[in-house]
Amino acid sequence: MSDPEASHVLDNPALASLAGPHARFAERRGRVLRYPVDVSPWLALPAEPDADDWADLAALAGPGSEVPLPGFRGQVPPGWEVTFHVEGVQLVDDGLATAPDAEAVRLGPADVPEMLDLVARTQPGPFLPRTIELGTYLGIRREGALIAMAGERLHPPGWTEISAVCTDPAFRGQGLGTRLIRAVAHGIRERGETPFLHTGAHNAGAIRLYESLGFRLRLRTAFLAARAPERLADDRAAIVVP
Q1: Which residues are registered as beta bridge partners of 34?
Q2: Cα–Cα distance, 11 to 159 (Å, whole number)
Q3: pTM above 0.85?
Q4: Tens of pLDDT along 90-107?
């Protein structure tokens, strides 16, 4: 198994994803990269952003826009306003028992309306109309209705993030989320990659579950959002990489 402490590729997983396996999604301005806004809220600043990087981010997002800053630990510059801040954790595979699941089906574009509805009711974290394009999503149906799902999001080289793990409240307590985590992780392992995931530091129950499955805490991080200044320093257009 890869050693995350040796490579540090997970210290800035969005940057590693958008500069690597997910480069096809990257919208770029200077050194700032982001996913399209209907794919994922994750964006990537350099490890130590300077004034030009913040100006590029503001121009890319648009004046007065709220910008997610996952993993950012520094100070936002003058003119920016922090609007959201919650502590988080990053956990990595450290002996997870993976297995395919006979009841799990691969979800596709036709399933997105149901997926969005399940996410709206269970709040596992951001899932947008095109998030499904980031990787494999598996679901479990009962009497035709989607009741549980999990899938892949960030994709740094050699790693894949498990995300959007959620179960309809009426079907909780049956281990469906655990089964889907193991099934998604099985597909990741089959590609020779290592699973990892993020959750809120306050979510003690989820952390205990993930650790019991074979994940270990690698990094304490933070999930922030900040509002860009209303007035931008220049009017240069963003460079969008198809």
Answers
A1: 27, 43
A2: 12
A3: yes
A4: 999 999 999 999 999 999
